[in-house]
Design a protein that fits this description.
The protein is α/β, with parallel strands linked by helices. The protein is built from twelve helices and twelve strands.
């Protein structure tokens, strides 16, 4: 049994059984991958993948168990490499962050700027996608941290640590009647009667927004959705509707728009960071987490990682989360 063979079966399973796509991603040949998988199956005396002709059709029950263990082995190998790098050259390495547009655009810039100045030898990579894909990137070992509001709790392979709470602002053009409301006067009933522009389902706390209207027996008139707060702002400026965005994405003075605090209308949302269970965290990774949220001290993070638990654990029982 070779490590390369385990990597092939793991990657094939992650590429929807597409051997050609796997070969391209690993910069090798399709026949070479197929041959190594066959050799591994022969050695183990089982089929990892069922086939129809030359095509893989599904993962067998035995194959699923092998793939899960292969993932653990590959993760352990990566941890060994990280331990070696930590002791041989702690000023060099990589940090890959998977996150949403809202986090990348509004929450992360000062953290990343300060981190880059402190660790010029660390290469930073950022992937932007929807929350489920973000979480999967970390589960698959293609990113170190997943930072988002939705979906992380759905992945059992992640330790989920709380970052901060946030709420929403309503955006209207400067001449809109709502722009003159006093703080706290805005109602859900008033919003439900207007065309709304907000986040796509599955992004940036959209579930809390829908829940607030549902609890009041209201059906909001959502005319346009987007994953990007800047896109939402663009269409509000065009007069297509009223925007509802994360408060951090709605500066109090932005040309052409008025931001109205809507925190009295909606439950707060929680942004968290997901880390694959069993990951060896290098010093600069721990430092990044503490820069991201001061309560994520090395002691708390290491305790949570050792226990394999998340933000509901006693590790964070005494933490008062910041609000953005």
């Amino acid at each position: 049994m070779k490590l390369q063979q385990l990597r092939y079966v793991w990657e094939v399973s992650r590429n929807n059984l597409n051997v050609s796509a796997t070969a391209q991603s690993l910069f090798t040949s399709q026949p070479g991958i197929s041959k190594q998988i066959r050799l591994l199956e022969g050695e183990l005396g089982i089929e990892i993948f069922a086939r129809s002709g030359k095509h893989l059709t599904r993962v067998t029950p035995a194959g699923q168990a092998v793939i899960e263990l292969a993932g653990q082995v590959l993760h352990t190998v990566e941890n060994i490499k990280q331990v070696a790098q930590e002791h041989s050259n702690e000023a060099r390495g990589e940090l890959t962050i998977a996150t949403t547009h809202t986090q990348a655009r509004y929450a992360l810039p000062p953290v990343i700027q300060a981190f880059g100045e402190r660790y010029p030898g660390i290469a930073l990579h950022m992937h932007q996608s929807d929350p489920r894909q973000i979480a999967q990137l970390v589960v698959d070992g293609k990113a170190d941290f997943a930072i988002c509001t939705e979906a992380l709790a759905l992945f059992n392979d992640l330790v989920v640590l709380p970052l901060y709470q946030w709420n929403r602002s309503v955006l209207v053009p400067e001449q809109h009647p709502l722009a003159t409301l006093a703080p706290g006067e805005l109602t859900l009933e008033a919003l439900a009667d207007l065309p709304l522009i907000t986040y796509t389902r599955g992004f940036t706390g959209r579930s809390q927004l829908d829940s607030a209207f549902r609890k009041m027996g209201l059906s909001p008139n959502v005319v346009l959705t987007a994953a990007d707060a800047d896109v939402i702002k663009t269409y509000v400026r065009l007069g297509m509707g009223i925007g509802i965005v994360a408060h951090m994405a709605a500066p109090s003075q932005e040309e052409g728009l008025v931001a109205i605090d809507a925190s009295h209308l909606f439950d707060s949302s929680l942004t968290s960071v997901g880390i694959r269970r069993g990951t060896f965290l290098r010093r600069y990774m721990l430092d990044f987490l503490e820069r991201l949220a001061p309560h994520l001290t090395r002691e708390r993070v290491e305790a949570a990682m050792a226990a394999g638990i998340g933000h509901e654990a006693a590790v964070f029982a005494d933490v008062s989360l910041p609000v953005r």
